[in-house]
Design brief:
The complex is a heterodimer of chains A (400) and B (135). Chain A contains 8 helices and 21 strands. With 400 residues, chain A is α+β, with helices and mostly antiparallel strands. In chain A, a hairpin with a 4-residue loop joins strand 18 and strand 19. Helix content of chain B is 23%, strand content 31%. In chain B, strand 2 and strand 3 form a beta hairpin. The chains are: A alpha+beta (400), B alpha+beta (135). At the A-B interface, helix 2 of A face loops of B.
C-alpha cells in the first residue's frame, strides 16, 4: 500500500495502548488505527457476539453544537427531527446535500442538562472520521443564517470507546456500581438506559490518587455492531484510564477488521462504501431513518421527487451460494450474465458461517429471493438476494 | 519473530518449498505471509496434473481482509493437493510450515532452488524494508 509522503495521519490518545497490545495499525479515514490485534479479526468478532469487546472509536468526529438556535440549525442540516429530540436521547440520521446525497451518516444527541461542563453543551454530533472536515465545512456553510450557534470540534480532546456485546451493559453496571472504589458515577444505572439514550459519566471522585474530576463525559447506549452495548466519550486522561480498566476486566480489544465484519452482518452502512454523496437514503434502503416530522432539512425536496419518480437502483444484501468472498467493486450479474450492479461491501460472516455482501443493483433486479451472480476475479459465483439485516440479535433495538 | 526453518527454500513472494528425500517438493506460504494476511478463509489450489512454471501463479489464498496470489517457488507438475487445507483453511495460520503444505510438486528442474533464498537470507530479507514494501 502506498501512502502519500505528505499525509499526516492522526493518532488517537490510545495509540500507545494499541502498540502495547501489538495491534496492526493501518491508515483509516485519516487516522492510524488498529485493524486487528494478535487475536485476529474472526476471534474478535466472535468475542463481541458471545461476550464483550471494545473498540477505540476516538477517530470519529465529535462536534458540540450550542447556542439558542442550535435546534433550528440542526433541523436544517440533519434529517433527524432535532426539535423533537428529548434531553438525554440520541438519533441516527444523515447530513444530505441539496440533491439528497449522503454527505455523512451521523448520530445526534441532545446532551443538554447532562452537566458536561466546559462547553455549555447542547447537542453532540458524532460523524465519521473521514468525513469530519467535510461535515464541518458543510455545517459552516449554513451557519451564517444562525448567528448565535457555535460549533466546537472536541474530537482530539476526548477519547471514545465502544464497548459491545451481550455482557457490555452488565459490565457498565458494575463500573457504575454506586460509590465503589474505581467506579464511575453515571447518574442512572446504565441498564436502565433505553437504546439510544445517554447519560453523563465521570470518574468517581472517591478514587484514590485522583483529583475530583469536574468534567464528565457522555455514556450512550449506542454502537455499530448490531449488538447491545455502550459508547463512552471521556476527556483524554480519563478515557485512557477507562480503556485500561476495561482491559483488566477482560474486555477483548477489537480492531477495525472486526468492526467491519460486525457492522456488515448487521447491515449497517459504511460511508464511502455503501453510501456516499452520490447515493440517497432512499436508494440505500435507509428511508426508515428519515423523519417525516422534520420538514425543513436540506435535500428534502430532492428526496420527495425521487420518491415520486421511483429509484433506478437499490442497495441489496446477498449471500454467495458457493465459496467466495464478494469484495468491494466486484460486478454483480443477472442470470443472463449482464452486469446489474456492483458490490459495495462484502466479507465473511463468522456468525452465519456464510459469505455475504451488499451492493447496488438495478431496481428491477432487487427483489428478495432473486438469483444473481458475483464476478469474483473472473469466476461467476451464484448468489441470492436476501433480506437485511443478515444478523439481528434476539432482543432487537429500535434503532441501528 | 522466530527464525524461519532452515531446511526450506524461500521466495521473495513469501512462499516456501521443501525438497523431500524422494525428490518431490512441498510448497506452502511462510509464517510472515499468513501473519500479514490474518485469518485465512479460502485457499484455491490447482488440480493434480497441472504444470506450473517457477514464479508463475499457483493459486490464491484469501483472508478476511485480502486476496493474495500464491506463486510457485519451483516449476513442475502438481502431483498432490492438500485437501485438509482446503477443508480447514485456518490450518494455514496455525501451522504454515507443517500441516498447511499446499501442494506437492514433481520439480522439472530441482536446480531452480538456487534462485530462492535460504532461511537465513529470508530472515534478512524480512528484516529489510523491502519485505514491507513488497507486501
Amino acid at each position: 500500500m502506498t501512502q502519500h509522503a505528505a499525509e499526516i495521519l492522526g493518532r488517537t490518545a490510545l495509540y500507545q495502548a494499541h502498540l502495547g497490545l501489538h495491534a496492526r495499525m493501518v491508515p483509516f479515514g485519516g487516522w492510524e488505527m488498529p485493524v486487528q490485534y494478535p487475536t485476529g479479526i474472526l476471534a474478535e468478532a466472535r468475542a463481541v457476539r458471545a461476550n464483550v469487546g471494545m473498540f477505540d472509536v476516538s477517530h470519529m468526529g465529535r462536534l458540540y453544537i450550542s447556542g439558542d438556535g442550535a435546534a433550528d440549525f440542526l433541523q436544517r442540516v440533519l434529517t433527524a427531527d432535532v426539535r423533537a429530540l428529548r434531553h438525554g436521547r440520541a438519533k441516527y440520521g444523515f447530513v444530505l446535500n441539496e440533491q439528497g446525497g449522503i454527505i455523512d451518516d451521523i448520530i445526534i444527541s441532545n446532551a443538554e442538562g447532562l452537566d458536561i461542563g466546559r462547553h455549555r453543551l447542547k447537542y453532540l454530533l458524532v460523524c465519521n472520521a473521514g468525513n469530519r472536515s467535510a461535515v464541518v465545512l458543510w455545517l459552516h456553510r449554513w451557519l451564517a443564517q444562525f448567528p448565535d450557534v457555535t460549533i466546537h470540534d472536541d474530537t482530539e480532546a476526548t477519547v471514545m470507546i465502544a464497548v459491545q456485546g451481550p455482557q457490555a451493559i452488565a459490565l457498565a453496571n458494575v463500573l457504575a456500581g454506586g460509590g465503589a472504589i474505581s467506579g464511575y458515577d453515571t447518574g442512572v444505572l446504565p441498564s436502565t438506559l433505553r437504546p439510544f439514550a445517554l447519560t453523563y459519566i465521570r470518574e468517581n471522585a472517591m478514587q484514590p490518587n485522583l483529583m475530583p474530576q469536574p468534567t464528565a463525559g457522555v455514556l450512550s447506549r449506542t454502537g455499530y455492531t448490531g449488538e447491545d452495548g455502550f459508547e463512552a466519550m471521556l476527556p483524554v486522561p480519563q478515557g485512557i484510564r477507562m480503556w485500561h480498566l476495561l482491559k483488566e476486566r477482560g474486555v477483548v480489544p477489537c480492531g477495525l477488521g472486526a468492526r467491519d465484519v460486525l457492522r456488515l452482518e448487521a447491515a449497517l452502512p459504511l460511508h464511502g462504501h455503501d453510501i456516499d454523496p452520490a447515493t440517497t437514503p432512499i436508494e440505500a434502503g435507509l428511508e426508515r431513518f428519515l423523519q417525516e416530522t422534520n420538514t425543513e432539512f436540506i435535500g428534502k425536496e430532492a428526496l420527495q421527487t425521487q420518491k415520486e419518480r421511483g429509484v433506478q437502483r437499490k442497495l441489496v444484501g446477498f449471500r454467495t451460494l458457493e465459496g467466495g468472498i464478494p469484495r468491494q467493486g466486484y460486478a454483480l450479474l443477472g442470470t443472463d450474465g449482464a452486469t446489474i450492479g456492483a458490490v459495495t461491501s462484502g466479507g465473511v460472516s463468522p456468525t452465519l458461517d456464510a459469505d455475504i455482501g451488499m451492493g447496488y443493483v438495478k431496481a428491477s433486479s432487487a427483489n428478495i429471493g432473486n438469483r444473481i451472480a458475483v464476478d469474483i476475479r473472473g469466476r461467476k459465483v451464484p448468489a441470492e438476494i436476501v433480506p437485511l439485516p443478515f444478523y439481528s440479535r434476539k432482543a432487537p433495538q429500535k434503532e441501528p | 519473530m522466530a527464525s524461519s526453518p532452515r531446511d526450506l527454500h524461500y521466495s521473495k513472494e513469501h512462499e516456501w518449498v521443501k525438497i523431500e528425500p524422494d525428490g518431490t517438493a512441498l510448497i506452502g506460504i511462510t509464517f510472515f505471509a499468513q501473519d500479514q494476511l490474518g485469518d485465512v478463509v479460502y485457499v484455491v489450489m490447482p488440480k493434480v496434473g497441472t504444470k506450473v512454471k517457477q514464479f508463475a501463479k499457483l493459486g490464491e489464498v484469501e483472508s478476511v481482509k485480502a486476496v493474495s496470489d500464491i506463486f510457485s517457488p519451483i516449476g513442475g507438475e502438481v502431483i498432490a493437493v492438500n485437501d485438509q487445507v482446503t477443508a480447514k483453511p485456518e490450518t494455514v495460520n496455525a501451522d504454515p510450515y507443517g500441516k498447511a503444505w499446499l501442494v506437492r510438486v514433481k520439480p522439472s528442474n530441482p536446480g531452480e532452488t538456487r534462485a530462492l533464498l535460504s532461511g537465513e537470507q529470508y530472515d534478512a530479507f524480512l528484516a529489510s524494508d523491502a519485505a514491507e514494501k513488497g507486501h
